[in-house]
Amino acid sequence: MASYIFGPVPSRRLGLSLGIDLVPFKTCTLDCIYCELGKTATPVSKRAAYVPFSQLEDEIRNFFASNERAQQLDFITLSGSGEPTLNQDLPRVVKLLQQLSKTPIALLTNGTLFSLPEVRQEVLTLDLILPSLDVVSEELFRTLNRPAATLKSQEIIDGLVALRLEYSGQIWLEILFCKGFNDSPAEIERLIQATKAIKPDKIQLNTVVRPGALAQAQAVEPSFLSALLPRFGPEAEIIAPFNISRDHNKTTEQTAKTILATLKRRPCTADDLKHALGLKKVEVIKILDLLREKGEIKMLQHSDKCYYQTTN
Ligand code: SF4
Fold first, then answer.
1. In total, how many domains does the chain have?
2. Which stretches of 157-243 are assigned E, i.e. beta strand?
3. Pick from 213, 132, 128: which is nearest to 177 by CA?
4. Do residues 104 and 11 both lie within one domain?
5. Residue 37 beta carbon below 6 angstroms from any ligand 1 atom
């Protein structure tokens, strides 16, 4: 089984997406309290060859040489188990993908390394960049996103502003609201001013949809997001749940059936399913979301852990 390619999986924002994981689990510049992948042991900001390029290249070439699902993709997404721009081979991977496929390439990033000119340069040929920005104030950045020591909130915002000036593709900026952290009137006003400077093509308002690294990472109410929407301007939207009817992918359906069968026997956490079925955690989480939206499973919180079980 491939270790750096996952899916295709249905994505809430990108349709049917092939994930390319550019860093090992879990290598990130941040340690967000809501992270669905769990805790980052030590946030890092140094770029390196975190994944052997030769192995990535083999897996990518194999997928596109033999996989008829390659024709059905809406996006190839650079993402996965942490922050993909940490991988210094990013430009080689992009070049390889563009040689092998005409599918648009998206980058799912926390945006923290766009303060580096070379990182901005490396993403110029991508079709879509989806950075996140949850806070402006430095203090909140440290409590909500818990970054590597060298990262500064204002430098990250400046990097996003510079990216907008240099990059002509689409930028969809996600802001994730976490109750009691970045939902104060003062912080919201700072975020509105930051988005005016960054000028993304879309501003996607979101909230915690499943328990993350810390139990205190709680969702804001849907009415809170609706009330905020007009304040962020016409580019803003609330991220809608993935449209299940678009998912005609057989592998996903098969995996969903296997997950359902496992949950019928006993409630499991996403980690239990990951280990039992040999899947990537992001893949498990996306399929659990689909099953929840279809009402086939529900979530239960027990001693800081989130379990899933079937509804009947
Ligand atoms: S940036 Fe993403 S992967 Fe990294 S800790 Fe935050 S939510 Fe998790």
1. 2
2. 170-177, 202-207, 236-238
3. 132
4. yes
5. yes
Q: How far apart are CA 231 and CA 92, in angstroms?
A: 40
Same domain as 95, residue 170: yes
CB neighbours of residue 91 within 10 Å: 16
Q: How confident is the model at residue 109 (pLDDT cuts 50, 70, 90)?
A: very high
User: What is the Cβ-side half-sphere exposure of residue 111, based on CA atoms within 13 angstroms?
Assistant: 29
- Tell the residue number behind the tokens 């990059």, with chain if given: 167
Is there a single domain that holds both residue 94 and residue 202? Answer: yes
SS3 per residue for 246-292: HCCCHHHHHHHHHHHHHHHHCCECHHHHHHHHCCCHHHHHHHHHHHH
Nearest CA to ligand 1 atom 7: 35
Gap from CA of 82 to ligand 1 centroid (Å) = 6
Expressed in angstroms and rounded, the spacing between residue 80 Cα and the centre of ligand 1 is: 10
As given in the structure block, the two tokens for residue 217 are: 């990472």
Q: Please work out whether the CB of residue 32 comes within 6 Å of at least one atom of ligand 1.
A: yes
- Ligand 1 centroid to 66 CA: how many Å? 32
Question: What mean pLDDT value characterizes the chain?
Answer: 89
Can you read off the two tokens belonging to residue 62?
């194999």
Same domain, 175 and 79: yes
- The last residue of one of the domains, among 217, 240, 263, is 240
- Segments forming the whole domain that contains residue 287: 246-310
64-97 residue pLDDT tens: 998 777 888 999 999 878 999 999 999 999 999 9
